[in-house]
Amino acid sequence: MDFFSKAARKSPWLYRINAGSCNGCDVELATTACIPRYDVERLGCQYCGSPKHADIVLITGPLTARVKDKVLRVYNEIPDPKVTVAVGICPISGGVFRESYAIEGPIDRYLPVDVNVPGCPPRPQAIIEGIAKAIEIWAKRA
Amino acid sequence: MLLKNALFLVAGCILAQAHINSLDELGGLGRKMPVTFAVFLFAGMSLAGIPPLNGFGSKLMIYEAAFEGGHYMLGLSALMSSLFTLAAILKFAHTAFMGQLSERASKMTEAPMVMLAPMLLLVGASIAVGLFPGLLLVPIAHLQTGLGLEPVQASWLGGLPGVSSYNPLVMTVALVATGLIGWLYYRLSGSRHVTSYIHTGGGVMIPNARMHLPASALYETPERLIRLALRDKPQVQDPQTESHAHDH
Amino acid sequence: MTTDTLRTLLTVLVFPGGLFAMALGLALKGVERRAIARLQRRVGPPLIQPFYDLIKLMRKRTLIPDTANAFVFLAVPVAGLASMAVAASMIPIPGFYEPSTGLGNLIVLFYLISIPAVSLMLAGSASGSPYGAIGFSREMAIVLAYEGPILLSLVAVALHAGAVTGQPILLSLTEIVRYQQEHGAFLFDPWMWPALLTYLCFIPANLGIAPFDIPEAESEVLEGPLVEYSGPPLGLMKLMSVTKSVVVLGLGIALFFPNGPAGLAGLFIFLAKCLVLVLAVSVLKAAVGRMRIDQAVLFYLKWPELLGFAGLALVIARF
Prior knowledge:
The structure holds 3 protein chains of 3 kinds. Chain A contains 5 helices and 5 strands, in the order αβαββαβαβα. Chain A is α/β, with parallel strands linked by helices. Chain A has one domain (3-141): Rossmann fold (3-Layer(aba) Sandwich). In chain A, helix 4 (90-93) links the parallel strand 4 (83-87) and strand 5 (115-117). In chain A, helix 1 runs antiparallel to helix 5. By secondary structure, chain B is mainly α. Chain B has a domain at 2-131 and 167-189. Chain B is built from 11 helices and 1 strand; from the N terminus they run ααααααααβααα. Chain B has helices at residues 2-17, 29-32, 34-47, 54-68, 72-97, 113-131, 134-146, 168-189, 208-211, 220-229, 239-247, and one strand at residues 193-196. The radius of gyration of chain B is 22 Å and the shape is globular. By secondary structure, chain C is mainly alpha-helical. Chain C has one domain. Helix content of chain C is 71%, strand content 1%. Chain C contains 12 helices and 1 strand. In chain C, helix 3 (49-58) packs antiparallel against helix 10. The termini of chain C are far apart. The chains are: A alpha/beta, B mainly alpha, C mainly alpha. Chains in contact: A-B, A-C, B-C. At the A-C interface, helix 1 and strand 2 of A face helix 3 of C. Strand 1 (193-196) of chain B pairs parallel with strand 1 of chain C, so a sheet runs across the interface.
């Protein structure tokens, strides 16, 4: 593992994509993962405003038909190397929306998913563990 | 003088191809007319007094003279006015040369060599005088001694006269040297350049005109505050009718 | 001539401009992030987090939008960083370092400090993104609002220093610092407090710190001018803004409270003052939210402007 990977391991920047989620997982990501008890910034993470700054992308939601093209477009804007984390049960199987006519998921039909964090919504500890796993993968790719 | 003329020539280059009467009809010209754009940016930045370009030196001498003479308010207003120059230059640069290609601009091409050559000549002269103010000051000092006046302090490689001891040559060398740090960072990273598209939050098929912020939309806040101060009613324009007006 | 030029180049490239200023800026940024985390009772990132970020960004691809002016897009971060490195070398560290004279005086420094804002605006404009263009427009609005107060503050200090040394105006920063070393800092002179307060008001707007970080707001305009940047150019942009924080804080120290012992101790005192200022800035950043652009512009046109005029009037009235 070279110098760059060591630095990269310490500095994964996060970007959230909502692929038609009910917002439950987004609330978990945006608020509980940041609050004092479950601080993700201690891993060197930081949420970015623009997808072009991101290293690890967190996708929530079952990928609805309406939002599919837009999610793929935003996903393509994230520069390589990147790691994808699917947060919540929806991107994995569709969750409670499974087999709906409006759902295009599971999401790994369209995107390479590296880490799955199931739950509805997942516990903050689970999300942070998922991010920690993603950091391991990201350090290898960087 | 050199810079203003260069800017007039740039405007001429644009007008020769597109007989427009509103800046809003342009956009993205920088990719169509790179040399014209480069001349504009150089002359504009210089006019706005960005060191180490030529315009800054003369501004500096004016400010110092104003402050030394005790005209603080004049000096302060001069300092502020260069900021408004900057605002105007950047507004023009944005609307005409940057951003999305407008329909009008997509048909334009780089100006012919006959039009480019005078601009480049002016820019070259400006760079020469900017880097070596002695080129003009030494002959002036000669003339002054010839006329029996006290000559300005000048040498071929020296800085500007006055209390500042600002030497544009030293400043340029320093800026280029530190620019090398940034260049080295680029080189060391060896990062691959990838052409991408701009972030629209996933939106697709948005017409170019919708993506370009027109001149009238820039600096909205200062404009509104000025209107407020002048007790002028803001002009409310229906965006629908405005876009129709553009179609014709 | 040649040894003088070589010395200037060294000060610009290594110490206290260039590499030293960049490293100091990154370290101060780390302190700031850590301090904010502690204020929110979080653990926070390691102190050298900004260095990691900078190295990491070298490993990312450089995305250039098809609507961008590629040359301007890639060149403005370099230009902004260069100007800040040179500006950092123009700030005297009392008792330890005096800038070389060829680079100029306070007015030159003032113009150099405004270059990063210009490069941010050009960056937002050159990226071709509407978010970038809005960021550019807002940056210009806030620059127009804060440049007035800062100018008034600088001129008040220069006039005061000139009056006490028997000149119309004293524009050399080295001389201003030397006078304060001998006769006491302006910080303890009540006549200078309006000018000092004006300078303090200018710091958050120039450094893009809440509540005035409107042009680069992540949630409203997706980091404005930076929205299209990625990889190394983004790294240079971040480096530029942290170096600017060193320049702006250092200038504040040189103008109002440069006193310190000679030798290496002077350098440490200078660093300690920077640290105190950064901690104060982090408290502000952690404590307040973000203003709207018109509120921020109106704020600057009212209070700091008024304070600035008061400071200038006090100095003129006194002598």
